[in-house]
What does this fold into?
Amino acid sequence: MMLSKSCEYGLRAALYLASLDEEGYVPISTISEELDISFPFLTKIFQKLNDAGLLESQRGPKGGVALTRPAEDVMLYEIVAAIDGDALFRECVLGLPNCGDADPCPLHEQWVPKREQLETMFRNASLAELPEVRLAALD
It folds into this structure.
C-alpha cells in the first residue's frame, strides 16, 4: 500500500472509534490492545490527529481520545492528510521530483487519473460510511 504504517494505523484507530456505540473518551491503551498497535506508536499517531483537530484527548481516570465530530463528518482524506500529508494525491507514483505533464515519468499517464480517483474516494468517504471496513478493522 502507498500509505505509511502510521497512516494505516491511524485509519484503523479512527474507524475503531467510529464503530463504538457509546460516546465519550476511550483510553488509548484499550485501542492499542484491541487493534494490536504499539501504545507509544499509537500515541504519536493520535497526536497528529489531535493537532489536526480530528481528535480530542482528555487526561485522567476517565480520559482517553474521542472524535471531535460525528463519524459522518470525518472524511478519510482528512486523516490521511493529517498523518501522511497530501503527497499521495499530488506526487509522482515513482517519487520522481520533476515528473509532470511537461516531463512525465513512464507511469504518469496511467497514474494521474488513478490518483485523482483515489483522492475523490478519500474526500467523499466518511468514517460512518464504511461499516464493512470498520468491522474488518476490529479483527
Q: What stands out?
A: The CA atoms of residues 5 and 123 lie 20 Å apart. The chain has six helices and two strands. Strands lie at 55-58, 64-67.
